[in-house]
Amino acid sequence: MEISARTNPIELFSRWLHEAATHPGIREATAMALATVALDGGVQNRIVLCKSWSEEGFVFYTNYLSRKGRELDRNPHCSAVFYWDQLGRQIRITGRVEKVPAEQSRAYWKSRPRESQISQYVSQQSEVVGSREELEKLASEAEKNFAGQEIPCPDHWGGYLIKPKSIEFWIAQPGRLHDRFEFEKSDHTWTFRRLYP
């Protein structure tokens, strides 16, 4: 696989993600570790799912009032990492987020399984809940309240677009002499360089 200055990093990302998604040993190819700047200045990290991507960037969805939502509201800089051990590959993305348009969030919400909609509808994500029983009771009550109806997308739930500043592709090699290729975006063009392992 040749990676060079002529490579489009978004097209390469698509190819790698497709190969990961069709690999029998990889359960969730779209899982990425998202790092944000915590409200106290530290760092927080968690796994989210990348739901779509384009030349503009990478989209994930969450509760805007969650810890990550509050952190991104205060500081939009973030980093995301995909790692597929079975393929010996990693992709690291750095950039800034912006909220996707509300109509895009609502369209994606409608495509989600109903139980996922219920979960997000009742969740006060990142806040303290007394017990599993309390959580299940809230979900059961919501299911009854919305019986025979569509579950509306909450105003505080939606997507973020990570607009990449850099994308790094890492390939495992014997003796830890790994290959690393970094693309950095300036305006609408990408610059390319190979990095030491």
Any descriptors?
nine-stranded antiparallel beta sheet, single chain, alpha+beta, 197 residues
Structural features, described:
- This protein is an alpha+beta fold and 197 residues long.
- It is 27% helix and 37% strand.
- The chain has five helices and nine strands, in the order H-E-E-E-E-H-E-E-H-H-H-E-E-E.
- It has helices at residues 9-21, 67-74, 102-111, 114-122, 132-145, and strands spanning 31-37, 43-49, 52-54, 57-63, 77-84, 89-99, 157-171, 179-186, 189-195.
- Strand 7 and strand 8 form a beta hairpin.
In short:
The chain has 197 residues and is α+β, with helices and mostly antiparallel strands. Helix content is 27%, strand content 37%. Strands 1, 2, 3, 4, 5, 6, 7, 8 and 9 form a nine-stranded antiparallel β-sheet that branches.
Structural class: alpha+beta
Helix content: 25-40%
Kindly provide the radius of gyration, computed on alpha-carbon positions and rounded to a whole number of angstroms.
19 Å
Helical stretch tally: 5
Could you give the distance between the termini? Answer: 17 Å
Average predicted local confidence, pLDDT = 96
What is the H/E order? HEEEEHEEHHHEEE
Give a short account of the largest sheet: 9 strands, antiparallel
Strand content: 35-45%
DSSP, total strands: 9
Shape: elongated
The unreliable regions are none
